[in-house]
């Protein structure tokens, strides 16, 4: 519904129709003719005009739209390539993920490391504009609809002549194709159920209290009890620098391509913003500019004063976070920063809006009275100012209730630009208890104040919904929410991870019950990660978990995995972004789980599966051929000597095994020759004679000679797979091993492996597996085992145990008839 | 105010409706603003069968909105709409075209939703089969497209 708003607006109606007229020739070619005349043939969906078709597509979700986009060319154009359609896909994307997170696609790969220019150009290339005040998705969409569509029109008109070819290469087009971005993101999400490698970065001297990831700029920021903020290169894990010591421990961080903010217990919020690179450096070369980090963390930050207690949480107004942030460094940051504190308030900060801020009217006691009344009510009623205009009331409150007019005056005395960089407090939201956690999700500001969770409209500051006594009255330690505004997750010291339906269609449900207090939550639709004080980090697909009904999950699987921090280093904080999961631990190390290899691993697994099936088919064909040969030989007396085989001798255990097996079978074909027989016959005639008929009888099976293919087909894929795996082809076996080893709860690829786990059931297959070839070499992927779950974790333990599984099974065959 | 208006379809069928009912069509409304005294409106793009349905829809909704905006009437309207849309595909698309031409916003929305429901939860091939759409994509393009929507297949 909301997605379709743009199409339904009257302004776009004529645009679509006008477009249709312009392209009428091409559309006629594409079969999209104009409205059928009177008395024409029975109308079908093809005969509908474009504008009407897009009306229909308005009511479809991403999945159905994706189906529709492949139906035919005209639909393709309408669903995926049109400017309006692109905006719809963009809104699909933004309803689930941060828009700036999609910039991975545009980032130049060659200088991916911390490049200011790369990042800023990537962002500026995307035509996103937004309204100045706080993010209201509807509002911002409406406002950027105009220029967005204008930009798109140029983009699509370029590709309009050949919509099938040029438009398919998203990298080449300057315009972000949001359908492609959406699809890519969906594919990337699969990494979370795949394999990972775990690393740790060491640098902080004390417990790490906050961690934030910014994969688009390859950054990780950490904050610690040692009073510093550190920046890391996400890919290499190398430190990029650290801040000057704060006045207290640093409890929270906010990170964005345009801003890095820290909140510390000295009640100050510090903000670093990217500086514009010097003109010379920019002109010199991309490589030179790439060497400059995005944030000068060691430089003096802007300081935001106002709180009277330790700052406990920071949140960024998201849909603005992706906007013109990196453009010129001189421009103000477009977004809004929310800071929650133990002084029971959340402050709203904006940069560069002093003109309408409360600077001039500071110290108005009357409005201050309003604020204190509101706070006495214990509600987020800061916006309950008398005037209906929420912005003016917010700024009025800010002007008066600014925590201490002293600080404001002091700041006025010093040069404000030097100190606060144009940041000013645009509003104060009062709560009834210490604010532990806040987050902006979609249009909502989620605030955990003591045991209460308040869902606040981020634009107006009005409380939309309240939850009380969620965790038996315990304080809500952390919360997360879904950007579509549908779900809210809370966790607390009682170890419960709850999911609440904000639309009140369903009651609260338990997603997981940790054994210890939950210390961190992170969410990337639909994956939810929760860290608890016992060192366990749960990573689960909230969609799947909630689809299952009321009861919490018990079993670990690909949609619900456990990662582990080493003993004594429980995670205190958590962040989840793109394909990385980071956790700051009590010992000061930051553990980083890198899922970027998951897709490649899955690809390798798929490739090896394909190779195996091909090999299996060819082997079956070869056996069939052999069998025919044998039959021919039987008719001819005496049989000619068959060609020598690679395996000169059968190991005794196998032979015994084959004998035993052979005896169990009804021997109705005493004479057929198996290919291996003559080789043996050359060395030990009598023994071979004793063996061969039995083996051949086995091979012939109960179904007679024609059944050679029979048992094979029935036993598939196990014998083929196992023999293939041991036959010296490195990739299948290594991927199997590491697939089984990777992650305690397995992954997408490893799961498939588990189902089709190779068991040497067929003696002949086993015999082949015991060939003289060396065991398969360890593939590089094997290192995942070592780094997989970091030593003491259960995942690593079980992984190690299963590694030896296949090979030991090969050595000790279990007779299993198919 | 109870002036009557005669709508004539392209196959000559005449429908006499109250002016208020006909005014739900933005197109007729605009036309009447131009020609105040018109008593008959020829509709060249709508056949009689479809126009009958449209008139039926407009009449019902005119009566329903006159009754007031209560919970009960809303449910009744919903029920009626559902029964109203229980038609064949060709009739549905006829209705969409007519609603688009006559500019009856609510009917257009309703019918489009019904059409969207037809598309919902179908594979690409199923959609093609259902609507007899010719696949004019080249094999190369199709492979590319399928890889693009690979995420859909879990």
From TrEMBL, chain A:
SMART domains: FBOX, WD40. WD repeats lie at residues 201-237, 243-273. Residues 149-171, 381-399, 610-623, 664-675, 711-736 have a biased composition (Low complexity). It comes from the Eukaryota. Residues 740-749, 787-798 have a biased composition (Gly residues). Residues 1-40, 133-171, 381-421, 610-675, 701-818 are annotated as: Disordered. The keyword Cytoplasm does not apply. Residues 637-654 have a biased composition (Pro residues). Residues 804-818 have a biased composition (Polar residues). Residues 42-92 form the F-box domain. Keywords: Repeat, WD repeat. This is F-box domain-containing protein. It comes from Pleodorina starrii.
Automatic annotation (TrEMBL), chain B:
Residues 106-151 form the SKP1 component dimerisation domain. InterPro entries: SKP1, SKP1-like, SKP1-like_dim_sf, SKP1/BTB/POZ_sf, Skp1_comp_dimer, Skp1_comp_POZ. One of its GO terms (biological process) is ubiquitin-dependent protein catabolic process. Residues 4-61 form the SKP1 component POZ domain. Signal peptide: none annotated. CDD domains: BTB_POZ_SKP1. It holds the Pfam family Skp1_POZ. The keyword Metal-binding does not apply. Pathway: Protein modification; protein ubiquitination. Keywords: Ubl conjugation pathway. Involved in ubiquitination and subsequent proteasomal degradation of target proteins. Together with CUL1, RBX1 and a F-box protein, it forms a SCF E3 ubiquitin ligase complex. The functional specificity of this complex depends on the type of F-box protein. In the SCF complex, it serves as an adapter that links the F-box protein to CUL1. Belongs to the SKP1 family. Part of a SCF (SKP1-cullin-F-box) protein ligase complex. This is SKP1-like protein. It comes from Pleodorina starrii. The gene is PLEST004685.
